[in-house]
Write a structure and sequence with these properties.
The complex is a heterodimer of chains A (114) and B (152). Chain A is of the alpha/beta class and 114 residues long. Chain A has one domain: 2-Layer Sandwich (Transcription Regulator spoIIAA), CATH 3.30.750.24. Chain A is built from 4 helices and 5 strands. Chain A has a 5-stranded mixed β-sheet, with helices on both faces. The termini of chain A are far apart. The relative contact order of chain A is 0.19. The model of chain A has no long low-confidence stretch (mean pLDDT 94). Chain B is globular and about 40 Å long. Chain B has 3 helices and 5 strands, in the order E-H-H-E-E-H-E-E. Chain B is an alpha+beta fold and 152 residues long. In chain B, 32% of the residues lie in helices and 25% in strands. Chain B has a 5-stranded antiparallel β-sheet, covered by helices on one side. Classes of the chains: A alpha/beta (114), B alpha+beta (152). Chains A and B meet through helix 2 and helix 3 of A and helix 2 and helix 3 of B.
Chain lengths: 114, 152
């Protein structure tokens, strides 16, 4: 299974609920297209919920970073929500904890944008 | 060729259980991951170790298919899996042009943190107990990964 992405609006924050695997191939490209689309349509406050993402490989991490850069270049902010231990470990190993703001609680994450 | 593995045990007490050539495709990445995980499970690795082994195999296969062989229909990825009483060894070799390990940008340095790629070897290193990368005599890059049953 590759990744399934659905978006919803919480106030002025766009929450992207991701489920499945973000890996080289379809998963990574679906993810990239969705983030680019949202950023280019002027969504400035993006919260990526990775709670149901079971697996991310280095290509998926590359897409997270690329998404972060895309959103930032459009004047927006991309934050992460609900990382499981394995994804947290990946961010530690790759030092991307220093780049991403990560939240466990959705309400707190949404509030952080205001 | 210096290495002459056979189905018999080598000096490390390893028995070669898989020795195959795979196409340079993403399907091969999935197939290699599944094949190694099955053997690793039979060898007795727990779920956390299996996850790490799977990730390392995936990253090495992606490197071989994408960066080494560049999806070439004429080039193969060579996969060898050996088991021993206390460890599993996986060797992935491509037929690409090879690269200088020392010349790769450090994915952990500040200026490279936002690069989209270049983290594969870092993850492999983190997930196996031993990682050796070398240029193979026949050309291409060979990655040898060892995971110990008692490892992290």
């Amino acid at each position: 299974m590759s990744v399934k992405l659905t978006t919803r609006q919480v106030g002025d924050v766009t929450v992207i609920d991701a489920a499945g695997r973000i890996t080289l191939g379809e998963g990574a490209s679906t993810f990239r297209d969705t983030i680019r689309d949202l950023a280019s349509k002027g969504n400035k406050k993006l919260l990526l919920n990775l709670g149901d993402v079971s697996y991310i490989d280095s290509s998926g991490i590359g897409e997270l970073v690329s998404g972060f850069t895309t959103v930032t270049n459009h004047g927006g902010v991309l934050r992460l929500l609900g990382l499981n231990k394995r994804v947290k470990d990946l961010l530690q190993i790759t030092k991307l904890y220093t780049v991403f703001e990560v939240f466990d609680d959705e309400a707190a994450a949404v509030r952080s944008f205001s | 060729m210096a290495q002459s593995d056979s189905m018999a045990e080598n000096q490390s007490g390893e028995t070669l259980v898989v020795d195959e050539q795979l196409d340079s495709s993403l399907e091969s990445v999935d197939a290699a991951e599944a094949s190694v995980l099955k053997i690793a499970e039979e060898t007795g690795f727990d779920e956390e170790a299996l996850h790490k082994i799977g990730m390392a195999v995936r990253e090495s296969m992606v490197n071989a298919v994408v960066h080494g062989n560049r999806y070439s229909g004429r080039k193969k990825v060579h996969l060898r899996v050996s088991t021993a009483a206390d460890h599993l060894a996986v060797v992935v070799r491509d037929e690409g042009e090879g690269f200088e390990f020392e010349n790769l940008p450090d994915p952990l340095s500040e200026e490279n943190l936002l690069r989209q790629s270049g983290r594969g070897l870092l993850l492999m290193q983190a997930f196996v107990d031993r990682l050796d990368v070398r240029r193979h005599e026949a050309g291409g890059t060979e990655v040898r990964m060892v995971k110990y049953l008692s490892g992290g």
